[in-house]
Each structure stands twice: as structure tokens, then as C-alpha cells.
């Protein structure tokens, strides 16, 4: 018995504002004819494909959802066919945060069975910061035992960015963080855009410097599609004296000669005392 099977939706889990994304719906008709493919967002239909009709595709208005606009006209007057979206793909252009949500593809085979199956997947659209984070430092020159205080703030984004600290490429542990908070900056399209602020306080030790310098980095991330970084280089205020190099053979001989002179000078009075007696 042949029947519709293996309906599977494939869409990006995360996308950026203004991206073009492709919603894919794969299925196996097992030699049956396709009757219709319907796409829904949160239960509301926005795209339909019917191979028996002209035009094959039909789009239903939905806020923030823009199915591809590249069209070509058919011979039938006042009709057109979407050029990019098909029975297996729907192209969404210039996506906005409103596009976030669950998308469902419903596939139906033709007569006599009219079998129907569906699958769903979720996408999250982010609006990332337009610039790297701001980094403020309380000093440039530091010595052993000093405290380094720094603050890092991300520019507004949706959702809030995450901030991490690195010292010489090594991630700073949470117990050194003074605070970590996100707060709304402004609202757009009924959504709040957030800035994130984080502070850190570190004590300078012998291990802080590499060749007299230390690099503190503030990194703002948003999922895996945005990474912004600011760095600051500290210099050691009073460099510690370096240990002297290994003595050369000449220095060793000189040292032995000095040692011998000292020994002779110490033995001479004893010899004189012995002669006098």
C-alpha cells in the first residue's frame, strides 16, 4: 500500500533581522500525486501550493512574514506565479523579529486517499547590536597587589546579549564578576530591546602579566550569529627585576679565585700565630 510519509520541516533555528531564510518541507509521496501543501505560523495559514491550479502558489497576508516577491507573469491575464517558493520550499525575505515562532508544513496527497501529514519546527529571529560593546577601565598601569575594575556594556539588541570576560585569553570565573544585568532600552513593534552590563574586579598577581603586559577582553555574544569584542592592554607599573643569567665559565673561575684569596687571607693570621709560638 502506497501512502504519504516522511514529512519533515527544516528551517534555521536562529536568523538575523533582514536575512532571507528558506523554509523546507520534504516528503515522500510514494508515487502518489500531490494535492496540496500548506504552511502555517502559529496555526494561521500564510502559504499554499496547489499544483492543479494556476497560479500554483497563493500567499495570505501575515504581519512580518514576507514571502518572496520575485514573480513572473503567466499567459493568463492578471495572474502570476511566485518564482522562488515551490511545493517544497518557501522563501521569506527581509525577516523581522515578528517572524519568530513555530512553522508547520501540512502535506496532502491526491485522490483517492487524500492522506494528510504534517511536521513543525521553530525559528528565532534576533536583532543583534549594531556595534561592539563599550569597555571602561579605571587604570592603565597596575602593580602586583592592585585591583583592576572594569565595566562592559552592550548596545541594544533583541534579545539581550550575553557578556563574558577573558584575561590573556582565559575566561574569567563568575566569582570575579561584580554584577551582570540586562535592562530595557526602548520598545519597537511591541518588543523590548535590551542592553547588558557587566562589571569585573580582579587582583593583580604574579601570573597576571605576560612579558609585562596583560590583556583584558569583554565579549558580547548572541546565540552563534553575533560576537563583538573590546580589548584593553595593561602594562606592569614597576617591572620586577629579572633573575641574573647563569654564570659564564669566566665568572666561575673569577669566583673561585676570589674564594681562594679569602681563604688565604683567613689562614695567614693563624700561620703567624703558630710561628710566634
TrEMBL record:
UniProt-annotated location(s): Membrane
One of the record's GO cellular component terms: membrane
Keywords recorded for this protein, A-Z: Disulfide bond, Membrane
PROSITE patterns, per the entry: IG_LIKE
Segments forming domain Ig-like: 19-124, 133-221
Main location: membrane
Membrane topology: Single-pass membrane protein
Listed SUPFAM superfamilies: Immunoglobulin (SSF48726)
InterPro entries per the UniProt record, alphabetical: CD80_C2-set (IPR013162), Ig-like_dom (IPR007110), Ig-like_dom_sf (IPR036179), Ig-like_fold (IPR013783), Ig_sub (IPR003599)
Pfam families: C2-set_2 (PF08205)
Top-level taxon of origin: Eukaryota
Gene3D superfamilies assigned to the protein according to its UniProt record, in alphabetical order: Immunoglobulins (2.60.40.10)
Entries under PANTHER family matching the protein: BEAT PROTEIN (PTHR21261), BEAT VI (PTHR21261:SF17)
Protein name: Ig-like domain-containing protein
Organism: Dendroctonus ponderosae (Mountain pine beetle)
